[in-house]
Amino acid sequence: MADLGFGQPRDGVMQMAYIVEDIRASIAYWTEELHVGPWFLLDSFTGRDPVYRGEPSRAEVSIAMAFAGHMNIELIQPKDDHPSVYRETLEQRGYGFHHFGLCTDDIDTAIADLEAKGLTLAFRAGVGSGGDVAYMDGGPGKPGMTELIEYTPGMDAGFTAMWRASRDWDGTDPVRPFGARPAAGDAG
């Protein structure tokens, strides 16, 4: 199976995600202390037709993504107290690591495969790249959830554009709108 455009194996871990209290303060930490950036910020995300543990979801989050090498880093700030995969993790463990992201060509089959291994579908929603994401809960013995990220050409192109922006990034424009094209000074 071919690698994704940003160099991660198409059937491997492509993302690590963290729940944060203040997304802008977290971006500043990752940028200033760890030299990770630029960050692509989406101030409001709910997903298309979101379902949390079998019920329609109203939870809203801010998300920011950047690359550390070939690994996508996602920061997630809950914006309300509605039930969600983020809120339940906050209540159980507090802020910090939330999930590993895995790319999948067939999200329905991947969900069924993980359910056969004892994981539970906790959240599913459509995303702007045309596919779906699904969070699988392995229970309290796991370090976090597993997010299945459905492969589409738009998904690969979006992540690859963010990765290209990170190559040889010189620290300018550390926060950019989600979906923005790389700046003129970014490697491509």
TrEMBL record:
Pfam families: Glyoxalase_4. This is VOC family protein. The lineage of its organism: Bacteria, Bacillati, Actinomycetota, Actinomycetes, Pseudonocardiales.
